[in-house]
Automatic annotation (TrEMBL):
SUPFAM superfamilies associated with the record: FAD-binding/transporter-associated domain-like
Protein's UniProt name: FAD-binding molybdopterin dehydrogenase
Segments passing through the bilayer: none
Domain spans labelled FAD-binding PCMH-type: 5-189
Pfam family, one: FAD_binding_5
Organism listed in the record: Streptomyces albospinus
InterPro entries: Diverse_Substr_Oxidored (IPR051312), FAD-bd_PCMH (IPR016166), FAD-bd_PCMH-like_sf (IPR036318), FAD-bd_PCMH_sub2 (IPR016169), Mopterin_DH_FAD-bd (IPR002346)
Length: 297
């Protein structure tokens, strides 16, 4: 028999999708008990309840942790809780007055998901799934985000988002370790950004998603490629590179077996689109905003 509260049962039922008939217990994460084989963190649950999870015996529910979804810290950086939903992040971004703010909504829209997913799926869940097309991975890696990870003994460590995702569905997480939050540095929020996304279908999963961030303080340019690759690839240039330099750097940074291959796009197509979109972004951000506006007329 499943041991869970009435509130937990209502929450699980609201997700719909797959019944997890191997789960015997749903535990509140505020109740500290030893981690054991068969445990899984429950954030929004949109992935967990989307397909069979025969290895899971107990869900540890994070929904009552009370973490502030999004907050700007005194140093100007932005902390996004792992339990922050896509809807909460979108609402916050609508009133966030920084140059990089439009990128938040662009990445939220890259989900191409229903309102139900928007209101349940979490930023932390998207990162911890580690899927190449995860748009919260794209957003936080492009803005040089860092993950705050908490082990079962309470110890904390930080790692860059670009290093946290190590492959398709793979991430740098130990047994029972928890992604607590993602922090975006204040300087990254001042960047001019450019966004490009492509799919094989009009409303399909991203086949390539490329983001550029131009730093107004030192003139540097970061180009981040996701969806086309099995892991985020973030390239940093002290000044905007030439088209040939960008193409060569990206080609060297991604090994042949690191171009993602699934039903949503072949590796050769993903590579072609990543190179093409990266050049579009380089061209857009290599000019000042005034020149960009003039060229658009």
């Amino acid at each position: 028999m499943l041991r869970t509260s009435r509130a937990d049962r209502r929450r699980v039922a609201s997700l719909g999708g797959m019944d997890l008939n191997t789960v015997l217990e749903v535990r509140d994460a505020r109740q500290r008990t030893p981690w054991r084989t068969g445990d899984a963190w429950l954030g929004g649950g949109t992935y967990l309840f989307s397909e069979p999870q025969p290895h899971i015996r107990r869900l540890v529910d994070l929904s009552r942790m009370g973490w502030e979804p999004v907050q700007q810290l005194p140093d100007g950086s932005l902390e996004i809780a792992a339990t922050c939903t896509i809807a909460q992040l979108s609402r916050f971004a609508a009133t966030f007055r920084v140059p990089a703010a439009p990128l938040f909504e662009q990445c939220c829209r890259a989900f191409l998901a229903s309102f139900k997913i928007w209101n349940m799926a979490t930023v932390g869940g998207n990162l911890c799934n580690g899927l190449p097309a995860g748009p919260m991975i794209s957003l936080t890696a492009a803005l040089d985000g860092s993950c705050l990870l908490q082990a079962q003994d309470g110890s904390l460590r930080r790692t860059k988002v670009a290093d946290f995702i190590t492959g398709a569905g793979r991430k740098d997480l130990g047994a029972g370790e928890l992604l607590r939050s993602v922090t975006l540095p204040a300087r990254a929020l001042t960047c001019r950004t450019a966004f490009r996304q492509v799919s094989l279908y009009g409303l399909g999963r991203s086949g390539a998603l490329v983001i550029g961030a131009h730093d107004p303080l030192d003139g540097s340019l970061a180009v981040t490629v996701t969806a086309a690759t099995v892991r985020p690839v973030r390239l940093w240039f002290p000044t905007p590179p030439s088209a040939a330099a960008l193409r060569g750097t990206l080609a060297r940074a991604v090994a042949d077996d690191e171009w993602f291959d699934d039903i949503h796009g072949l590796p050769a197509w993903r590579r072609h689109m990543a190179l093409r979109l990266s050049e579009e972004i380089r061209s857009e951000l290599a000019h000042g905003p005034e020149l960009t506006r003039e060229s658009a007329r």
